[in-house]
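Researcher: We plan to redesign the surface later, but first we want a full-length starting point. C-alpha cells attached.
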C-alpha cells in the first residue's frame, strides 16, 4: 500500500501576521478583528481565513480601530420574556471579569435586544463559556428564571453537547475524574493523575464526567463530540488533554503532549447543543448551532 500525501493547508491570515510582527496568537487575532490587516488591499477581519499564494498581507498597527462588540440578529437563537439563548462568537468574553472589560456577550446581547425590540431589562448569568470557545449560552431575564436555571445547572440537568477537534486518534469513552484547582504542577486538573493520591479524595475536588464520541478521523486529529454529564471549568479541555489528546489550538493544557502539534488561533471547541427546561412553562427546550467558519475551515483543512 502507498500512503497518500496530503497537501499542507494554505496559511491563515493570523499565521502570516505573526510571522510579520512576531506577535502572539492573541495579538495577531486582535489586529485582524480591529481592522488593521488587509489582504490584497481588502480589510480582513477573519484571522482564520486562508491566504492564497502570492497574496499581499499588510499589517498597519496604527490604522484606525474598527468598532467591535456588535452581534448580528442571527446570533439570537431564541428569546422570550424569561430567557434568551445566544450563539457566542469565539474571542468574546461571556461577562466582564475585570473593571473596564467591554463588549462582552452580556453587553452585546442587551444592546441587540434593545435594538430589535426596544427591551432593556437586565440579563442574569447562570453559566459561562471560555472567551475562545464559541457556541450556545442562555441568560435569564427575570430573577425567577435565573434561580430556576441555576438550580438546573447545579443538578446537572442541562443538556450540553460540544464539538471539538483533538490531536491524535481519539476513541469513544466515558471519562470520570475529580477536578482540583492544582493537580500538583500549578494547573487545574484531575486529582491523583499528576501526583500519587494521598488518602481519599479531597473535599474540594469536584466530580467531573465527560462522554467522548469520535465523529470523523482527520489528519493528525479527530473530530469528536463531547457530552457533558457535569459542567466544570475547562472540563473538556482538561479531560481530553489528560487522555493524551489536547484540543487543537490548546495553549494551557498541552505542556505534556509530545506529539506533533497542529497550529490554530484558538482552541477548537464549540458548544453545539444546549437544552433545558423552560423556567416558567416547564417545557423541555433544545437548541443547536453549527460551528463557526474557523472551526469548519480547520476541520476541512485536516480532512483525510
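Model: Full-length starting sequence:
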Amino acid at each position: 500500500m502507498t500512503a497518500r500525501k496530503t497537501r499542507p493547508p494554505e496559511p491563515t491570515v493570523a499565521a502570516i501576521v505573526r510571522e510579520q510582527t512576531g506577535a502572539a496568537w492573541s495579538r495577531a487575532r486582535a489586529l485582524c478583528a480591529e481592522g488593521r490587516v488587509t489582504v490584497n488591499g481588502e480589510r480582513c477581519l477573519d484571522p482564520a481565513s486562508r491566504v492564497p499564494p502570492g497574496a499581499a498581507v499588510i499589517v498597519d498597527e496604527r490604522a484606525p480601530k474598527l468598532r467591535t462588540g456588535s452581534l448580528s440578529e442571527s446570533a439570537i437563537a431564541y428569546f422570550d420574556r424569561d430567557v434568551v439563548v445566544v450563539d457566542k462568537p469565539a474571542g468574546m468574553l461571556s461577562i466582564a471579569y475585570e473593571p473596564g472589560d467591554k463588549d462582552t456577550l452580556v453587553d452585546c446581547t442587551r444592546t441587540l435586544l434593545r435594538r430589535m425590540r426596544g427591551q432593556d431589562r437586565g440579563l442574569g448569568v447562570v453559566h459561562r463559556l471560555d472567551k475562545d470557545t464559541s457556541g450556545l449560552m442562555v441568560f435569564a431575564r427575570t430573577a425567577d428564571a435565573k434561580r430556576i436555571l441555576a438550580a438546573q445547572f447545579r443538578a446537572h440537568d442541562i443538556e450540553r453537547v460540544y464539538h471539538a477537534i483533538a490531536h491524535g486518534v481519539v476513541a469513544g469513552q466515558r471519562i470520570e475524574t475529580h477536578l482540583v484547582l492544582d493537580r500538583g504542577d500549578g494547573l487545574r486538573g484531575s486529582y491523583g493523575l499528576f501526583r500519587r493520591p494521598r488518602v481519599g479524595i479531597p473535599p474540594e475536588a469536584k466530580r467531573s464526567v465527560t462522554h467522548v464520541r469520535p465523529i470523523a478521523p482527520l489528519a493528525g486529529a479527530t473530530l469528536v463530540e463531547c457530552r457533558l454529564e457535569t459542567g466544570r471549568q475547562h472540563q473538556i479541555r482538561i479531560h481530553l488533554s489528560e487522555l493524551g489528546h489536547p484540543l487543537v489550538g490548546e495553549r494551557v493544557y498541552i505542556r505534556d503532549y509530545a506529539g506533533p502539534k497542529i497550529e490554530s488561533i484558538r482552541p477548537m471547541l464549540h458548544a453545539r447543543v444546549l437544552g433545558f427546561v423552560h423556567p416558567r412553562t416547564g417545557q423541555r427546550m433544545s437548541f443547536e448551532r453549527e460551528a463557526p467558519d474557523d472551526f469548519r475551515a480547520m476541520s476541512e483543512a485536516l480532512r483525510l
